[in-house]
Amino acid sequence: MRVVGSSERQKQATMFENVSNLAELAIQAVYPNVCALCGAATPTAQRALTRRNLPIRALVCTECLERIVAPTNTFCYRCGAVVKPGNYTGKCQPSCAQNFAFDRVCPMNFYRGLIRAVILRLKHEHDPLLANVVANIYFAARKRSLEAFQPDCVVAVPMNWRRKLLRGGVNAPETIAKELARKLGVPNMSSFVRRARATAPQTAVEWSNRAVNVEGAFKIRRSIFGRAVLAPFDCKRVVLVDDAITTGATVNEIARLLRENGAQAVFVAALARAGLGGIHNN
User: Fold this and answer.
1) Three-class SS state of 147
2) How many CA atoms lie within 13 A of 208 on its CB side?
3) How many other CB atoms sit within 10 Å of the CB of residue 21?
4) Cβ neighbours, 10 Å, residue 63
5) Which of 23, 69, 65, 25 is closest to 42 using CA atoms?
6) What is the pTM of this model?
7) What pLDDT is recorded for position 177?
8) CA 62 – CA 64 distance, rounded (Å)
9) What is the distance of C-alpha 203 from the center of its chain?
10) End-to-end CA distance of the chain
């Protein structure tokens, strides 16, 4: 057995410290100790090269967290509208949105202020780090609701390939869905849902025509990498990810498609609920 002398141990310790310092510099380049949303300083987290689950408070400052997340019971669980305290438990009215194909919608906040700025940045910039940070914030804020749903998979609202190409291959819901699937420990099955045709952006369409605009716009992909999959969503409980919902027409059309293809239940995970009017308008 080879005996390591004290001088050699010291050299090994120095080498390990140098490697650790380099690793810390590399991690700081990706995860700096500043808020990912506003740039303010955040508490220094204990870092490790193999650690993927950095604390939210090491990535986003307390003030931004308070501004970006609204309480779960603020929203109607069927349509996402504001629930008036003391009226109806979890719903804005007794007969709320019975025609929706999804079972629940769970926004993180109103489409205003900081969350609006974040969503617009995600739409127009290639920033996977920001998308991952937002996914982690959503998971931390809505973990109880997500786990109570007991999902089997996660699906993102797909983007038309031409529009995605023009945006540099970026579709924020896909990045968020990937991270949420990892957090939940379930497959990310976004590749099984595709846009069958290009549609006008929902923001450019009158509210009354939005359901018509996306009708038949999505299809289930039956073959992935040359392997046929007959019923990918049969008996699955699906988390459907979108950045912002207004009328719910897009997520409802996808939820309807998932239901027709055997999905048992659909939970809409949205960063923001837009179009609420009054003080909560855009």
Assistant:
1) helix
2) 0
3) 10
4) 13
5) 65
6) 0.78
7) 95
8) 6
9) 20
10) 72
Q: What is the residue type of 193?
A: V
Q: 162-213, pLDDT tens digit by residue?
A: 666 666 667 889 999 999 999 999 999 999 998 877 665 555 556 555 665 5
Mean pLDDT of the residues in the chain: 78
Q: State the amino acid at position 245 in one-letter form.
A: I
Query: Which residues, other chains included, contact 119 with Cβ-Cβ below 8 Å and sequence gap of 6+?
Result: 111, 172, 243, 244, 271, 272
The string of DSSP letters for 189-207 reads -GGGEEESS----GGGS-G
In three-state secondary structure terms, 188 is: strand
CA–CA separation, 246 and 210 (whole Å) = 10
* Separation in Å, CA 85 to CA 73, 89, 91, 159, 242: 9, 8, 10, 37, 27
User: Phi/psi class of residue 13: alpha, beta or left (left: φ > 0; alpha: ψ in -120 to 50)?
Assistant: alpha
Q: Hey, what amino acid is at 70?
A: A
Q: What does the chain come to in residues?
A: 282
- The CATH number, out of the four listed (3.40.50.1970, 3.30.160.20, 3.30.559.10, 3.40.50.2020), of the domain defined by the range 70-280: 3.40.50.2020
- What pLDDT is attached to residue 53? 58
